[in-house]
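Researcher: I've been going back and forth with a colleague about how Tryptophan--tRNA ligase might be arranged in three dimensions. Neither of us has a model we trust, so I'd like an independent prediction. The organism is Rhizobium rhizophilum, in case that matters for your notes. Sequence below.
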Amino acid sequence: MTEFKPLVFSGVQPTGNLHLGNYLGAIRKFVALQENNDCIYCVVDMHALTAQLVHEDMPTQIRSITAAFLAAGIDPKKHIVFNQSQVPQHAELAWIFNCVARIGWMNRMTQFKDKAGKDREQASLGLYAYPSLMAADILVYRATHVPVGDDQKQHLELARDIAMKFNLDFHDKIVPTGLGIDIKVGEEPVHAYFPMVEPLIDGPAPRVMSLKDGTKKMSKSDPSDLSRINLMDDQEAISKKIRKAKTDPDALPSETEGLKGRPEADNLVGIFAALADKSKTDVLSEFGGQQFSVFKPALIDLAVEVLAPINAEMRRLMEDPGHIDAVLRDGGERARSRAEKTMNEVRDIIGFVR
Ligand code: TRP
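Model: Here is an independent structure prediction for Tryptophan--tRNA ligase. You can compare it with whatever you and your colleague have in mind.
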């Protein structure tokens, strides 16, 4: 049984400022994965149109996600960094996937239901088709592994369903051309053109919660800027936000058990642990019994130590948009040539004349 060559793909939308949750939950994982994998990281600008067509400053948003990737340590020469709209093959494959996916599948997507809200008639057709474009992003490279947050798991399951239906529906065209690979799906051997993508979910990365409410996720859409640490925040802003973060009156416990029912304490300890690359248990063995008046200054020092260099590098990169654009163009070119190879095969499998 052969296997698809492992390839990591992930995407980040250029909407709103990146915050600590995006960094710890996604970008830092992207950086770590480069070590042992071939990786493609994409600024998904076409996805950004699905909720809102007109954006205040689309070019700056695209460049700032790219700057964050580079500042965090993603190497755009060894891997590929680009913005989605430079590779029109994503949209082309998405059209084919729109014809593979069933309306019943799309209707089950919880993110669509949440984002469309009550007035579904007024949601864009793009928002509805969002997961199909996401499947195309990944599968146009026949990528096998996708680091994402928990909230994207359902979209990856849909990508597998799409891949599987394509593989089965075109089985008669795939096998004779020798384009597919024998893979195992559960116990079943299947001849597949598209791989069954695997999510790479969480691992040690914490769910980073709001600094103002430990039961809500840190979010770029929270009206209070004090609820989050943005990657573009300077030292002063970072320390002010941590100083003002909500806590409870008790000292920190010595065991993680003691964090139960204390969401704000749990969140700050989790952030400390993630930034220090330690477990919460380690953090509590150091700070158990201490008041927040001791813990917060230590957290501020650590957050500044980790984030300030990223922040400074992002600012430096943002001063030279021409350089960022050149990185995206170069990545776009390399991505396009890989995507076009897939599309030629897909066109042949479907029977389009070329
Ligand atoms: N939907 C993803 C998110 O909101 C972004 C995304 C688009 C993506 N295409 C992707 C993530 C492909 C992983 C792979 O986080």
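Researcher: What would you highlight for our discussion?
Model: I'd start with this: The CA atoms of residues 183 and 190 lie 5 Å apart. After that, consider the following. The two ends are 32 Å apart (CA to CA).
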